[in-house]
Every structure is written in structure tokens, then in C-alpha cells.
């Protein structure tokens, strides 16, 4: 979605290193920010989400940070493992789409062992 | 959570024909959506399937090409009409209990038009 920009498009890390993916959004009223993981040939699945009333949320090796002022949010994966290799999508609800989720372009994460 | 069953999982169709994709959710959900995903690309919202009324289409998608039904809260269909090779893509249904809540996805339908 052109109103949700995601970087980088590809990311290669060594097993055990950290990975960070960043998204920016255009609508200051957006208040829900999910991250989805899609393995090859499979459906997207939610891995973590954050609402605008908090700045950070963590679930084991995965964390999401939100900067509402700057309108960006980031996915952090620590101690990466080969099974983290997948495509990751951020999303945000945008008013011009009736507050429906608009997805970023995706990031291909490769964890090298 | 919601479990979504989508079928068919894949099909190869002749140009000019139509294909109907079905999506069944195991629980009542408020919202159902249809997305298109080109290989290696992001998810593009086609339309919101509204129960008991006409679907709401996003820019670039029209009802004549992608008619959608939603007869009840747990079932929806998307038809890809008068197909051309440009319609080859993965089509995904999605469901959520409301806006700003987790969206669940079907396993997708990989459509190839020859």
C-alpha cells in the first residue's frame, strides 16, 4: 500500500543476530498496528500487534515499537533462528480506506545458519 | 480466534471463464474481506463483503468483475469473472470481529488463467 511504507524490502541476517523492520504510515488517526508473518505458500499470520496507547510491546523474541509523533512503527526480532525466515508485512488502518488495514510491501527476511 | 477454510486451494482456468472461491469461517465474524496477492507482492484489498448488502469495493475493483456474496456471518464467495491471464494471482479471504482487531486469513486460492 502506498500509504504504508515498509523497509527494507529484503534483509539477511546471521542466525542469532537481531532483525529490525520499519514501517511508516500516513494517517495520524491510525491506532492499530499489526505485523504478519507469511511463510512460503502459506497464509499470513499475526505475530504481534500494538495499539496507539502504548509505545512498546514484547512477546518473547519479538517486539514492536511505536512512535506516533513520527508515524512509524518497527518490528524487532532478537536471537533470530532459521525458522524466522519468511515475509513480514506491517499494516495500518487508513481513513481513506474506511479504516481498513492497508499492508506494507513486505520484507523478505533470510536467517543464515 | 477464527479458523477460515477457503476453497479451492488452486485452479487452472481457461480465459473467458469464471471461478467462484468460497470462504467459510468457524465462528460468527463482523467483517470479511477479499484480498489479491501477486507472487512476491503485498496484499491488495479488493472489497469488504457485507452481510445482507452489496460489497464495498476498493479503487480499481468493480462488482461486474469480482461479484461477492455474503449470505450470512460465516460465509462469503468471490467470483472472478471473464478471466484473463492478468487475473492470475493468489486470492485470500480474511475475517475479523471488527476494525482494529486481528485479521485471520484463509489459506488462499492460487489461480492460473491460461
Helix content of chain A: under 10%
Spatial gap, N to C terminus of chain A: 32 Å
What are the secondary-structure elements of chain A, in order, as H or E?
A: EEEEEEEEEEE
Radius of gyration of chain B using CA atoms only: 13 Å
- Segments of chain A where pLDDT lies below 50 for 5+ residues? none
Characterize the overall form of chain B.
globular
> What is the share of helical residues of chain B?
under 10%
DSSP strand count of chain B = 11
Number of E-type strands of chain A: 11
Judged by helices, strands and strand pairing, the structural class of chain A is mainly beta
Order of helices and strands of chain B: EEEEEEEEEEE
State the end-to-end CA separation of chain B: 37 Å
Compose a concise summary of this entry.
Chain A has 113 residues and is mainly beta. Chain A has strands at 4-7, 10-14, 19-25, 32-38, 45-51, 56-59, 62-67, 72-77, 86-94, 100-103, 107-112. The interface between A and B is medium-sized, with 23 and 20 residues.
Summarize the helices and strands and which ones pair or pack.
The complex is a heterodimer of chains A (113) and B (114).
Chain A: E1 4-7, E2 10-14, E3 19-25, E4 32-38, E5 45-51, E6 56-59, E7 62-67, E8 72-77, E9 86-94, E10 100-103, E11 107-112
Chain B: E1 4-7, E2 10-13, E3 19-25, E4 31-37, E5 43-49, E6 56-57, E7 68-72, E8 75-80, E9 89-96, E10 104-105, E11 109-113
Parallel strand pairs in B: 2-11
Antiparallel strand pairs in B: 1-3, 3-8, 4-5, 4-9, 5-6, 7-8, 9-10, 9-11
Give your account of this protein's structure.
The complex is a heterodimer of chains A (113) and B (114). By secondary structure, chain A is an all-beta fold. Chain A has no helices and 11 strands. Chain A has strands at 4-7, 10-14, 19-25, 32-38, 45-51, 56-59, 62-67, 72-77, 86-94, 100-103, 107-112. The model of chain A has no long low-confidence stretch (mean pLDDT 95). The mean pLDDT of chain B is 95. Helices cover 0% and strands 50% of the residues of chain B. In chain B, strands 2, 4, 5, 6, 9, 10 and 11 form a 7-stranded mixed sheet that branches. Chain B starts with a strand and ends with a strand. Chain B contains no helices and 11 strands. Chain B is mostly beta strands and 114 residues long. The chains are: A mainly beta (113), B mainly beta (114). The interface between A and B is medium-sized, with 23 and 20 residues.
Amino acid at each position: 500500500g502506498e500509504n504504508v511504507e515498509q523497509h527494507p524490502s529484503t534483509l539477511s541476517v546471521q542466525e542469532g543476530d537481531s532483525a529490525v523492520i520499519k514501517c511508516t504510515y500516513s494517517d495520524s488517526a491510525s491506532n492499530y498496528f499489526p505485523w504478519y508473518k507469511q511463510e512460503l505458500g502459506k497464509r499470513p499470520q499475526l505475530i504481534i500487534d500494538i495499539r496507539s496507547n502504548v509505545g512498546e510491546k514484547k512477546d518473547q523474541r519479538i517486539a514492536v515499537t511505536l512512535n506516533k509523533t513520527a508515524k512509524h512503527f518497527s518490528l524487532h526480532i532478537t536471537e533470530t533462528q532459521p525458522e524466522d525466515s519468511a515475509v513480514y508485512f506491517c499494516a495500518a488502518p487508513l481513513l481513506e480506506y474506511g479504516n481498513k488495514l492497508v499492508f506494507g510491501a513486505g520484507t523478505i527476511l533470510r536467517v543464515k545458519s | 480466534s477464527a479458523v477460515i477454510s477457503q476453497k479451492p486451494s488452486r485452479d487452472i482456468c481457461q480465459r473467458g471463464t469464471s471461478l467462484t472461491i468460497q470462504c467459510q469461517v468457524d465462528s460468527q465474524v463482523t467483517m470479511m474481506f477479499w484480498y489479491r496477492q501477486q507472487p512476491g507482492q503485498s496484499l491488495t484489498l479488493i472489497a469488504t463483503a457485507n452481510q445482507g448488502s452489496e460489497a464495498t469495493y476498493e479503487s480499481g475493483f468493480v462488482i461486474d468483475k469480482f461479484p461477492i456474496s455474503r449470505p450470512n456471518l460465516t460465509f462469503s464467495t468471490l467470483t472472478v469473472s471473464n478471466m484473463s491471464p492478468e487475473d492470475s494471482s493468489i486470492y485470500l479471504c480474511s475475517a475479523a470481529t471488527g476494525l482494529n482487531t486481528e485479521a485471520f486469513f484463509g489459506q488462499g486460492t492460487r489461480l492460473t488463467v491460461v
